[in-house]
Every structure is written in C-alpha cells, then in structure tokens.
C-alpha cells in the first residue's frame, strides 16, 4: 500500500466545513469535503478536478489545474495526465524493455526511446469504477486485463481512496497482480498553482517556495528524462538544491547557466522534470513543502513512497484553458512554467536499475 497526504494550511485558519453528500453533481463531479478543504473528482483517470483550500484572507482557492467541462478530459489532445493515476507502471521504462525471471519483455515506445505510463491503455485514459463513497472519501477501482498495454502481462486489480480531513487530502493506492509477476508502480499526478493564477505580478511558478529536506540527492537524467543510473548530490545553492534551506523559491536558480535546459530535451526544457529520492526521513515526516506568499497557502506532503518527481510544467504552451475558478480577466490559459506537478513515486525506471 502506498499512502500520501498533503496538508494545506493558510496563515489564517478557519473552520467552515460544509457537509456535502458525495454523489455526482449536475456537473458530473463527485464532491467530498471537510473543514477548510473541498475536493472534486471524476471517474475518468480517477481524476481530481478541483481542490479548494483557504487562503490567508479565508477565501476558497482552487489550487489544482483542470477543466470545467468534465467531458473534455477524455478529448484533450494534449492530455497532461491532469491530477490522475497513471498506471500500471508510471513514468518511464527505459528503452521499452524490462526483464522478469530472465525473460525480456518489450513495451511500447510512446515517448522517444522509452515507454511512458505503460504505453497504450494506461490508466489515466480509463474510466474507473466508483466503488465506495462517503461525504469525506471516495474510492475508485480498476481491473486491468493482461496485455492491455503491450507486454504488461497478468491482470491487475487496483484501487485508490481519496479522503479529506481538516485541511488535509489523503491518497491511498493499492494494486495486486494475482496471476503473475508484472511491473507495478503508481503515483498521483496532480498539478498545483497555489495562487489559482491570480497573482497579478506573475503566472509563473518560480515564486512558489519548495523545500525537500530529505532530498539532497537527485537522479541524473538524459535528454529523454530517463535516469542514467547516476545519483548526484546537489551542491548548496545549485539548480537542483531544495534541501539546504527551507525558503528556496522554485525559481531560485533561474538565472544560473543550465537552468533553461535543466530538464533535458536538448536544452529546450527549462526548470524541473526530475526525481529526488527521499532519504532517511522519519516515519510520517513532512518530506516536501510547497508554499506561496501571495496566497499564504502552504502544502505539506507526507508519503511512504521512495521519492518525488518535480515537474515545473515546461511543456504547457498557453493553449490549455484555465478553469473559471482560476485566472484573471486578462489571464485564461496555462502558460509555460506556470504550475508544478509533485508526484510521489518509486524510483523512475526502477524495474531496470
Ligand atoms: C536467471 O538466470 C541466472 C543465470 O543464468 C540463473 O542463475 C537463475 O536461476 C535464473 N533465474 C530464473 C528465475 O530462471
Ligand atoms: C495512453 O493510452 C492512450 C489510449 O490508449 C494512448 O492514446 C496514449 O498514447 C497512451 N500513452 C500515453 C503516454 O499517454
Ligand atoms: C467496472 O466494473 C465492471 C463490472 O464489474 C467491469 O466490467 C469493468 O471492467 C470495471 N471497469 C474498470 C475500469 O475496471
Ligand atoms: C500481447 O498483445 C500483442 C498485440 O498487442 C500480441 O502480439 C502478443 O502476442 C500479446 N502477448 C500475449 C502474451 O498475449
Ligand atoms: C485542524 O488543523 C489545524 C491546523 O493544522 C489544527 O490546528 C487543528 O487542531 C485541527 N483540528 C482538529 C479537530 O484536528
Ligand atoms: C516573490 O516573493 C517575494 C517574497 O518571497 C516577494 O518579495 C516578491 O514580490 C514576489 N514576486 C512576485 C513577482 O510575486
Ligand atoms: C534515442 O536513442 C538514440 C540511439 O541510441 C540516440 O541517438 C538518441 O539521442 C536518443 N534520444 C533521446 C531523446 O535520448
């Protein structure tokens, strides 16, 4: 079982919970809520569509990306895996192959030289079943047939339960493969902007702070975002350092040489799309803190996963619309480097390392 919880707090805390009944509303979303937090979901991809928390003025802020029209999640040609559960093996499988018990299996090359999110029929493109719901929690289930993604063999049964409690959002994922050994690795792939794109001075994510106290090391990656096998230590103040002090902004190194190509693609990917192992963290420690001084919202992540992918949204180009809960009168789209995905997961390409 893998478990993550993100606790949100603002400078001013208030208790103002509404007891919504968790059934799909007219807009097709399931709503769960507790004091200071309200989350909405759809079965497509087991996706979080909206996450409202309180800002420093006690106003509700929708801190995650998404669409207003639920049908659009399945139609969006860009499909950024918005706030969903990719699977059965997230992130990259290097060179589209893995071995189990001395047999090598070839998977679909759908991301350059590699397999991304298992290839075709990955779980973020599937409509999951709702198998339990209360006013504070909802469970989605998926039964994934053998070989539904090329050479991902053996049926897998998986569930995710999302729940909210007093300003925190909890994610429990489990998956079993009753028939045979198969690659399994899950994450929850949510994109954040803690200002809901309402900071008039900037829509970039660079002014959010990020602290990864147990992640001095990170995985070196090649141009295709595949780990090379080298685990590097970030020198204090260097581009990939978020451990040496608690107040680094995500853009702390944006003027350093190398930042504009730090996430590969032959120098075209600015910022972050890498993996930081979480090392020597006490049980239940806060392993990541994302905060914005503009909204006063702070998100603290606790997880039993082995590390964290940080992706600073380089590949957004202003064509995706913001929700009506976000943006300004002159800001309606998701610009480059304007959000951050924090994905607690096991080591990228761990099946081959
Ligand atoms: C895999 O191959 C190695 C070396 O040939 C052998 O020692 C081992 O028993 C094999 N494992 C399995 C599960 O077949
Ligand atoms: C995931 O599955 C869908 C539907 O089969 C496919 O169109 C897509 O290319 C797959 N891969 C990724 C990385 O999304
Ligand atoms: C949902 O449940 C039905 C009935 O048990 C099953 O046929 C279907 O495959 C399930 N869908 C998923 C995505 O697992
Ligand atoms: C998996 O599906 C592919 C076609 O997508 C097929 O060629 C292959 O034989 C299948 N493998 C198994 C073990 O069924
Ligand atoms: C709710 O969370 C706040 C902020 O973390 C904390 O101060 C308060 O004690 C919590 N209330 C309950 C009932 O747990
Ligand atoms: C960024 O945050 C700092 C404080 O952390 C603040 O002084 C500055 O005005 C902010 N800049 C923008 C563009 O919001
Ligand atoms: C893909 O592999 C080829 C051959 O090994 C290599 O030349 C190319 O640079 C790789 N592409 C990426 C994006 O890593």
UniProtKB/TrEMBL annotation:
GO terms for biological process: galactose catabolic process via UDP-galactose, Leloir pathway; glucose metabolic process. InterPro entries: Aldose_1/G6P_1-epimerase, Gal_mutarotase_sf_dom, GH-type_carb-bd. The keyword Transferase does not apply. Keywords: Signal. Residues 1-20 form the signal peptide. It holds the Pfam family Aldose_epim. GO terms for molecular function: aldose 1-epimerase activity; carbohydrate binding. Gene3D superfamilies: 2.70.98.10. This is Aldose 1-epimerase. It comes from Neoarthrinium moseri.
């Amino acid at each position: 079982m893998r478990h993550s919880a993100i606790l949100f707090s603002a400078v001013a805390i208030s208790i103002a919970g509404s007891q919504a009944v968790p059934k799909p509303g007219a807009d097709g979303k399931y709503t769960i809520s507790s004091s200071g937090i309200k989350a909405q979901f759809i079965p497509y991809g087991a996706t979080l569509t909206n996450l409202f928390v309180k800002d420093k003025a006690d106003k509700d802020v929708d801190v995650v990306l998404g669409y207003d029209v639920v049908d659009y999640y399945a139609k969006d040609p860009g499909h950024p895996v918005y706030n969903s559960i990719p699977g059965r093996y997230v992130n990259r499988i290097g060179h589209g192959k893995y071995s189990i018990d001395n047999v090598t299996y070839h998977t679909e090359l759908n991301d350059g030289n590699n397999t991304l999110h298992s290839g075709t029929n990955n779980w973020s493109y599937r409509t999951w079943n709702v198998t339990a719901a209360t006013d504070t929690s909802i469970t989605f289930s998926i039964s994934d047939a053998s070989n539904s993604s090329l050479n991902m063999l053996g049926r897998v049964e998986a569930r995710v339960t999302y729940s909210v409690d007093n300003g925190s959002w909890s994610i429990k994922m489990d998956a079993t493969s009753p028939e045979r050994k198969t690659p399994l690795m899950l994450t929850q792939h949510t994109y954040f902007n803690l200002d809901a794109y309402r900071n008039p001075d900037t829509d970039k994510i660079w002014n959010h702070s990020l602290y990864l106290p147990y992640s001095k090391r990170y995985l070196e990656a090649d141009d295709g975002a595949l780990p090379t096998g080298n685990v590097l230590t970030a020198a204090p103040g260097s581009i990939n350092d978020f451990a040496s002090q608690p107040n680094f902004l995500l853009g702390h190194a944006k003027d350093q040489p190398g930042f504009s190509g730090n996430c590969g693609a032959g120098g075209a990917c600015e910022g972050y799309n890498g993996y930081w192992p979480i090392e020597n963290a006490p049980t239940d420690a806060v392993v990541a803190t994302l905060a914005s001084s503009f909204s006063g919202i702070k998100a603290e992540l606790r997880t039993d996963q082995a590390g964290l992918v940080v992706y600073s949204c380089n590949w957004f180009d202003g064509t995706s619309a913001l929700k009506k809960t976000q943006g300004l009168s002159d800001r309606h789209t998701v610009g480059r480097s304007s959000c951050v995905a924090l994905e607690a997961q096991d080591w990228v390409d761990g099946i081959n390392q």
